[in-house]
Structure formats: C-alpha cells, structure tokens
C-alpha cells in the first residue's frame, strides 16, 4: 500500500516536472519568436552611414528637380514669395493669426529693434465650434475675425498703433495652399476635419481681409506663410546665420533660403535680395533607399493618402506610435507577448500615440514601472513582466532611431544642396532652426538626430553647423514676417 502511494506520489511529481519543463520550453519558444521579430525589425530598420548618404543624395536630387519644374519631383519646392527675413531692426506692433487645425491663436508682438528685440508678446487660443468647420467660408472667417477684433480691443496703452495707421498681420495657415504672392493664396483642399467645399479654389487672405472689414477693424494681412517658414523667420530673428528650418511634430517639413537664380521654374523678375525662401514639403519625399518594413507598407496602404508622405510616415509624431503598435500586435500574434489572448485595444489603429511611445522609451526606472503603467492605461494590459516591458522599450528605440537618423539625412541633403558640407576656408556658420513636439519632447530622437548629422558631416564641417531650438515659430514667426515685410515695403 505504502509502495503504491509512493509510486503514485512519484508519478505526480514526475508529471508536474514534465508540465514545468513543457511550460519552460513553451516560454523559451515564445521569447525566441519575439526576439526573432525584434531582430528582423532591427535589420529592416537599419540606417547605416552608407544608406544615409544615399538618402541625402536622393534628397538633393529631388530638391533640384522640384526647383526646375512644378511637377518634376515628389518635393513641391514651393516658392513662398518670402524674399526678406527679419533682421532684428524691426520696430512696432504686429499681429499674427495661427490657424493650424480645430483651434487657432491670435498673437500681439511689440518689437523694439536690435536693442530691445521683443518687448512684449501676448496671445490667446480659440477653439472653433464643430459646426463652423463645414458651413460657409463667411461664417468661419467671421468667427475668426470677431476673435481677432476682441483681442485687438484688449490692447494696452503701450500697444496702440499710431493714429491713422492700420494694424498689420502675419497669417500662418497650415492647410494645402497654392501661393500666388506673399499675401495671397488659393486653398487646394481642406484637411483636419474641415469640409467647406465652396472655399476650395478661393483666396483665403481675401476672405480673411473681408471678414476683418466686416468687423470694422482697420487691419491688413501682409504675409501668408506656413509654420516652417515661420520657424525660419523666428530663427533668423535671433541668429542672422539661420538658413534652414525644420519642423518635427505631428507632421514634418523643411524650409530654407535658396538663391533665386537656382530656381529655374521661377520666371518672375529677379528679386532685389537675390534670395527666396523655399517651402520644401519634404514630408512627401520618397526614395528606394528609405528602409521600409512591412509595417510601414501596411500603414501606408491603409492610410488616407496611400503612396504619399512616405518620409513623414517614417519620421513624424502622427505615425511613429502607430508603427510601434503594429509591431507589438505582430509580437502578440506570433509570440503571445502579452499572454494567450491578444489585448483588444492593441488592435485599435492609432490608439498608441508617439507621445505614449516617448514616455515609455524614456522610462529609466529599474523595473520599467512607467512602461507597465502605460501599457495598462492605453492598451488595458493589466500585468506585464519586466522582460516584456524591456522588449516594448526596444521596439520604441528601433522606430525612433530610424526616424531620427532619416531626419538627419534629410538635413544633410539640404546642406549638400546649399554647398555647405565640404571643408571651407571661410567657415561660414549654418544655423538650422528646429521646432515641433517630436524634437522638443522626444529627447532621444533629438539627440540621435543631432549626433547622426555630426557623424555624416564629420567633425570639421559639423563645427560650423548649429542646430537651434525655436519656440512658437508658427506664431511669433508670422508676426516677425509681417514686421519684416512692412519694413521692406517702407524701403521700396
């Protein structure tokens, strides 16, 4: 009897041991599959120096093609009609309107010339009611002009313009526009929840000026710009060597100062300054040298603009978090990364934002506690091992590193086009103004981009290239451009 009991007990122990061994083997296979997905990702996202040089060269080729003809390149290389950037001498009171989405801001800037610079700046944000995004242009612009009039009414005694003088405004409009002068442009199409069809093809500055008149406000729109051009102006205002501006945020774009004679498609009379700001629209850059993965291809195919904005889909805040989600979903499907059942939230497109990604990537706690908290908050993954959390951080790093290195390659392409990547005896400084949430808040991304650019340039050339953060280029920059244009007009 005792012998039978002992045998039974031994059998139970053996069975338990067998189960434990099977579980360990299953666990080992699971992690091997997850590791294989990560290794494959690292290989496909790799952006070694040689490949980055190819991307840079391709960027320069596309820039030249876009400058040569309107439809010659994926890069629009838009002539902005901005041929005069702030010098620091500007004085007076100037306004800005920054309309980039479902909110807009109005700003007031008091400039005091080289000695006093920006004496005072004030701003207010306004949310646009949902119904105004699809009614009529009159209703939308009347609402905006009314907010502008209210803001003007709050001017202090120290901010009044001279009697009989009209206020001057810079207008940042972050929607697709065909610009026809520095102060006019027709709307190509609406994005970001707007759908006022009758506005397409109309001059948006004319519409705004008319709405301003209906408010009884004596004000004129002097400049129409996008946020990248505003960033360039804000950068030039504080540093006269600023030649390039990059925005790395929800989307990405670049602008730079080009010699007018290097723009074959520009048929207007030669401008006095000899320079012209070009809005590259570089988010639409595409090249066979870009390291695309199946995750990127699927994201692109399912997007609202398949085949377009490929560079932006690899480098911007709108998309990097979504790429991470797709990779984690693959790991959940093939390696049960988060357990036997796939978390339902993980299958929701765009639920994982780049902001969430950077928070997890920046987690320096020993047990990666913040990663666990975010997985729970966003994807409702209640528990995760440290090993799992580390794998999530690794995925974030691969995607961010690729984006940062490709952004550096794009900047290198611009510097190459400007002839500033070779050892030069004159050692001209080249300042690159950078704005946008990805650059400002994603520390790893910004640092990786800068170190990659230094690596590509070499220490000798890199010593004369400076990257400078710029705050609020889309707002302050628009006011500064209005000031610069006003001064320029007075000199003519």
From TrEMBL:
Stretches assigned to the Hexokinase N-terminal domain: 38-237
Molecular function via GO: ATP binding; D-glucose binding; fructokinase activity; glucokinase activity
Keyword Disulfide bond: no
Domain Hexokinase C-terminal: 244-483
Pathway(s) it belongs to: Carbohydrate metabolism; hexose metabolism; Carbohydrate degradation; glycolysis; D-glyceraldehyde 3-phosphate and glycerone phosphate from D-glucose: step 1/4
PROSITE patterns assigned to the protein according to its UniProt record, in alphabetical order: HEXOKINASE_1, HEXOKINASE_2
GO CC annotation terms, alphabetical: cytosol; mitochondrion
Any Pfam family hit: Hexokinase_2
InterPro entries in the record: ATPase_NBD (IPR043129), Hexokinase (IPR001312), Hexokinase_BS (IPR019807), Hexokinase_C (IPR022673), Hexokinase_N (IPR022672)
Reaction equations catalysed: a D-hexose + ATP = a D-hexose 6-phosphate + ADP + H(+); D-glucose + ATP = D-glucose 6-phosphate + ADP + H(+); D-fructose + ATP = D-fructose 6-phosphate + ADP + H(+)
Keywords for the protein's UniProt record, in alphabetical order: ATP-binding, Glycolysis, Kinase, Nucleotide-binding, Transferase
Annotated EC: 2.7.1.-
Enzyme class: transferase
Highest taxon of the lineage: Eukaryota
RNA-binding recorded as keyword: no
Family statement: Belongs to the hexokinase family.
Protein name: Phosphotransferase
Species name: Lolium multiflorum
């Amino acid at each position: 009897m005792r012998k039978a009991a002992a045998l039974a007990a031994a059998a139970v122990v053996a069975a338990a041991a067998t189960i434990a061994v099977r579980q360990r083997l299953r666990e080992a296979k699971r992690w091997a599959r997850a590791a294989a997905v990560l290794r494959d990702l690292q290989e496909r996202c790799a952006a070694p120096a040689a490949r980055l040089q190819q991307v840079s060269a391709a960027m320069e080729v596309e820039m030249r093609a876009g400058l040569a003809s309107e439809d010659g390149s994926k890069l629009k290389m838009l002539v902005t009609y901005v041929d005069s950037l702030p010098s620091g001498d500007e004085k007076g009171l100037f306004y800005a309107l920054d309309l980039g989405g479902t909110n807009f801001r109005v700003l007031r800037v008091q400039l005091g010339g080289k000695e006093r610079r920006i004496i005072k700046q004030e701003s207010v944000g306004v949310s646009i009611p949902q119904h105004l995004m699809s009614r009529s242009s009159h209703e939308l612009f009347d609402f905006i002009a009314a907010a502008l009039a209210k803001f003007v009414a709050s001017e202090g005694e120290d901010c009044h313009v001279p009697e009989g003088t009209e206020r001057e405004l810079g207008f940042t409009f972050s929607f697709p526009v065909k610009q026809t002068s520095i102060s006019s442009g027709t709307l190509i199409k609406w994005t970001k929840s707007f759908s006022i069809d009758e506005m397409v093809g109309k001059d948006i500055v004319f519409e705004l000026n008319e709405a301003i008149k209906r408010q009884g406000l004596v004000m004129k729109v002097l400049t129409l710009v996008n946020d990248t051009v505003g960033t360039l102006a804000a950068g030039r205002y504080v540093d006269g060597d600023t030649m390039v501006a990059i925005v790395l945020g929800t989307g990405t774009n670049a602008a730079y100062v080009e010699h007018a004679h290097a723009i074959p498609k520009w048929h207007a009379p030669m401008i006095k300054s000899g320079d012209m700001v070009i809005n590259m629209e570089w988010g639409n850059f595409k090249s066979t040298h870009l390291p695309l993965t199946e995750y990127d291809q699927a994201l692109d195919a399912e997007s609202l603009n398949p085949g377009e904005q490929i560079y932006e889909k690899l480098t911007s805040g709108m998309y990097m978090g979504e790429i991470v989600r797709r990779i984690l979903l693959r790991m959940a499907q093939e390696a049960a990364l988060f357990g036997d059942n796939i978390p339902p939230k993980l299958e929701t497109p765009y639920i994982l934002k780049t902001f969430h990604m950077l928070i997890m990537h920046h987690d320096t706690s020993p047990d990666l506690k913040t990663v666990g908290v975010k997985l729970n908050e966003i994807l409702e993954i209640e528990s995760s091992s440290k090993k799992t959390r580390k794998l999530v951080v690794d995925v974030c790093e691969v995607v961010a590193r690729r984006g940062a290195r490709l952004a550096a390659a794009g900047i290198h392409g611009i510097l190459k086009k400007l002839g500033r990547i070779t050892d030069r005896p004159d050692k001209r400084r080249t300042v690159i103004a950078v704005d946008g949430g990805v650059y400002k808040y994603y520390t790893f991304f910004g640092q990786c981009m800068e170190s990659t650019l230094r690596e590509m340039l070499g220490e000798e050339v890199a010593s004369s290239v400076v990257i400078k953060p710029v705050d609020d280029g889309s707002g302050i920059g628009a006011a500064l451009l209005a000031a610069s244009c006003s001064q320029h007009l007075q000199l003519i």
